[in-house]
Amino acid sequence: MDRATSLNDVTTHVFELTQKDGYLATNSLLMDAVLIARAYDELDQASTNLPNDLSELRVGDGSIDDWVAGAQSFVEAAVSRGTLTVIYSPQLRPVAADLESKLSEGALLNVQLADLRSYAHGRHLWLSSRPNDCAVLALTEPSLSGLWERMRALFPSNVPTLTMALPASDPSSLIAGLVAQMHLISAIATLQGKDAGRPTVPQFGRDLYYIDLQAVIPAPQDEPAGSCNSKYDVLGAKWPSPRGQGPVQRALDESLERFANQRFRAILFDYDGTLCSSQRIEHPPQADVLDHLERLVRAGVIVGIASGRGGSIQEHLAASLPIDVLHKVHLGLYNGGWLADASQTVAVNDESSEFLSHVTRIVHRLKRTGVPIERVRSTPPIQVSVRFREGLSTESMWYVVADALRQDGLDPACMVRSKHSVDILAPGYGKSRLVAHVIRELRIDPYQILTVGDQGAWPGNDAALLEHKYSLSVDVPSRRLDRGWKLAPAHKRDVDATLWYLRRVVLESEGLFRLDLTTTD
Fold first, then answer.
1. How far is CA 169 from CA 95, 147, 175, in A?
2. Of the ranges 348-352, 421-425, 469-473, which one carries the lowest mean pLDDT score?
3. What's the longest Cα–Cα distance across the chain?
4. What pLDDT score does 432 carry?
């Protein structure tokens, strides 16, 4: 969990067990199952059907205890034969998988798993060839219970069978199946005189478990064609489309050569997904990112940040950077609608416009018709931001809003999307306004400006930022071959890729720097 917490774009939650786990980890499995069921109920806005207590779970017409008690003769037959065939409805596969895992890891029985629908494709020969060596357990739910009863009637009479008839395949039934098979395993182990939760583990087994994997498995190598492949991906040339075409590789080589020979005076970043994790809960950049920003500013490099968000960014920076550094960080918030240095409190003009009023009406109409919109925020006269419910991708929802704008006679080209929201911009606004501001107000040569963002392909909200001649992506590159490349390793993205670039910044004379992209970690 400590390692996971250190990753970008990962939110960790710790739920403590009230009882320690045994060898088969039954407590943590059940806790995970219940947590996942509750989470999906929340996302589905459904009232949970989980009972208050495990004793209320049902198998067939009775309790789990009743089912296990009635299975005692089957348990004895299965133990004496040594092999259990588990035939399951595909909707109950998790129960079957865990049953096989526990019986095998506890060295209790040989186990064969078979989908109920394909058992007749040859698995039945075991019953005719070795009828005295196996027993059959069927995990069923209503949709396939009739098929199982017809199959069982055709089985040899000397093959013992047992049915775990679950009332449905919903979370409550699946958890009932997990609990029931755990009790069944306990009964099997008890008959064999074993404790499934505390087996005798040999020393070689412990040594196997504690093998130092990093010492015996080579670390993955950086993908040599990662930069080209990211371009192919954004161009739609995914497998099985041909790759390795000459123009893309030549364009990459030319870009690397240009970067090797270029000196920069300014670096302008996107914020979410570039300087900090793109999370629904807003946090300031992490310490090592802030350290790099301060290092650049104190070396005389012009640093800027462009974002579709507003005042929260200035507040985060004000709480994280020294005041003398804040004065030298240039902000282009609300997609360039507010331009100032990071020491100034953000103030937005409250004048409205017919364009934004029209857009707001369209979006609210979508929400009333059932589009899963969580929040609509208007920032006159610049933009309307739309955020969708947790778990929904803006990549697919973008088209819903774009089509509604088109139907009302508006140009969807005014829309951009990030990983967490969609912004509809008034004419003339965009992150490139910060680039223009640095060129015009600070008298910086355009070719001495480096831009960095994560969503470089339109309708990504960094498409305009990565239209700049010298630009880098930390995730999705631009579709143009002469700019907006993701040159960081394929396995690094977002803030990790930003840090990879920042560690390759070589400071030269006052206010100048270059990128040494040949340096390895």
1. 11, 16, 10
2. 348-352
3. 91
4. 94
**By the 8 A CB rule, do 248 and 242 touch?**
no
C-alpha–C-alpha distance, residues 295 and 202, integer Å: 55
Query: What is the pLDDT averaged over residues 306-335?
Result: 93
Question: Residue 347, Cβ neighbours under 10 Å: how many?
Answer: 10
- d(CA 487, CA 223) in angstroms, rounded, equals 11
C-alpha to C-alpha distance for 317 and 515, rounded to whole angstroms: 25
Q: How many residues does the chain have?
A: 521
Dist CA 86 CA 142 (whole Å): 17
Q: Which long-range contacts (CB under 8 A, 24 or more apart) does 311-315 make?
A: 311/345, 311/346, 312/282, 313/271, 314/342, 314/344, 314/345, 314/346
Please state the φ and ψ torsions of residue 496, each to the nearest 5 degrees: -60, -40
Angle at 208 between CA 205 and CA 213, to 5 degrees: 165
Bond from prior residue into 220 cis (ω within 30 degrees of 0): no
Q: What's this model's pTM, rounded to 2 decimal places?
A: 0.78
CB atoms within 10 A of CB 201: 11
Looking at residue 492, what DSSP letter applies? Answer: -
Q: ∠235-404-308 over CA atoms, to 5°?
A: 65
Cβ pair 309, 341 in contact under 8 A = no
The domains of the chain, with CATH numbers, are: 13-209 (3.40.50.10490), 229-348+428-515 (3.40.50.1000), 354-425 (3.30.70)
Q: Are 217 and 471 in contact (CB under 8 A)?
A: no
10 Å Cβ neighbour count for 262? 14
Tokens of residue 317, six digits: 């920076």
What pLDDT sits at residue 213? 92
